[in-house]
Amino acid sequence: MVQARLLFAIAVHARGEPNEGLAMLQDAIELAISLGMNTKSFSSSNGGSISCLEESFRRTWWELFVVEGIMSAIHRRSTMKTTTVASEVLLPCEDSTYTDGACFSDSPTLAQFADRHFAEEEMSFSSSCYRIEAVQILSRVLSIANAEAHPDEVQAIDNSLAAWTHYVPPEKRDLISNSGEVDEMLFQAHMVIHWATILLHMPRSELLSVHPTADIFCAKGDKQMPSTDTKHAHASKATDASKELSNLAAFRCPIQKHTPFFICALVIASVVQLAACTLHNCRCMYQHKDRITLVVGLLKSLSLNWACAGSVLVKIKKIAAKVLKSEHCTMTLASTQCDSCTDSGLGTSIGAEDVPWLEFFDDPTIMSFDRFAPGMLFPDEGS
Asked: Does 366 lie in the same domain as 288?
């Protein structure tokens, strides 16, 4: 029942019902905790000495943790239920090992993985472990998302985000194997790290002055927070993270293999790019335009499977059409070459009153599901 509710929660979210998906996930977590799935002994006590079944139980708990972290980011929830209980569950093995049925019972502990930074000998860990660690850092970001934090705390979390990449071992640095297969667990781990970076820095940057104030699916508006560094530095880090998310979107692989939560990551990346593009005016316009064009194309393809992609696609396209209107800039060679070959928006500042695309967030037709799913009924449309 826990696994069924977890999968159903993801599907409900992806079809455009985020609140219902979150409620179903909370039910799954409550049931898992009541069963004791967060304890080390649960898998061995209920696995019937079948190593793959024991691994399935362990993976279920960690999947609850990861999905709750991502949904908490979408809903801007500062606490996670899975972090309020002691988690003694051993870490998952590689996906390929699990798929081949070659699971083993001597999986590493969370403490062993955390201690690897200062260990004398290198240990091998699965890609899922790095995904779990990424969500742990994300949960720290969310804990200060809606409250003023001491500059040292913000810097400490930023240090963890920056350090994460350095501890990915050389054999896992390339997300694509020689055969062209993408390591989906590492793909999601990088996605979460860049997403968390945006959530940490955008509210403390000048980008928020041109960030949509109304809700957009997967990208709720944030409150302006006091800067702990220069606003330009925060803007640069948020923009760089959005660029990295668009780089993930550029991978040549079947998009159906990606988690539907990648839709939300693409949305937050495009919102940052549009905000930075507005701040830049014509500087580096082509870089932003190419990234947003890629994101829009990917959302278009994803909308064939997931309703929420179609919802945000309508809104992002309408905003992008206004911001990236060709007549606003003459795309000459001189205007497309940036002084520093970066597009972080440094040194430019305008007010929200100068941003014409904000008016689109008052258009009730933009969020209509009828534009891409005619005839479908959703909770607020009756039964």
From this structure: yes
Q: Which residue has the tokens 């694509």?
A: 176
Q: Which residue has the tokens 């979408």?
A: 74
Distance of CA 332 to the CA centre of its chain: 35
Judge whether 382 lies within some domain. no
If we measure between CA atoms, which residue out of 224, 221, 244, 213 comes closest to residue 343? 244
Q: How far is CA 219 from CA 62, 131, 132, 269, in A?
A: 25, 21, 22, 9
Asked whether the CA dihedral 297, 300, 304, 310 is positive or negative, the reply is positive
Find residue 182's DSSP bridge partners: 176
**What would the two tokens of residue 260 be?**
């539907």
Residue pLDDT, tens place only, 128-145: 999 999 999 999 999 997
Q: What is the pLDDT at residue 345?
A: 45
Residue type, position 166, single letter: H
Dist CA 125 CA 112 (whole Å): 10
75 shares a domain with 131: no
One-letter amino acid of 100: D
Cβ-proximal residues to 276 (8 Å cutoff; 6+ apart), any chain: 207, 235, 239, 242, 288, 343, 344, 345
> Which tops the pLDDT comparison, 154 or 102?
154
What lies within 8 Å, CB to CB, of 130 at 6+ separation is: 164, 168, 172, 185, 186, 189
Our measurement of the distance from residue 200's CA atom to the centroid of its chain's CA atoms, rounded to an integer in Å, reads 12
CA-only gyration radius of the chain, Å = 21
- Counted residue by residue, the chain has a size of 383
- Same domain (yes/no): 28, 167: no
**Dist CA 323 CA 292 (whole Å):** 11
Residue-wise pLDDT tens digits, 148-160: 888 899 999 999 9
Asked if residue 276 and residue 365 are part of one domain, the reply reads yes
Give 125's DSSP letter: -
| Pairwise CA distance, residues 177 & 172, whole Å | 9
Q: Do 290 and 148 belong to one domain?
A: yes
Residue ranges making up the domain that contains 61? 1-93
For residues 195 and 54, state if they share a domain. Answer: no
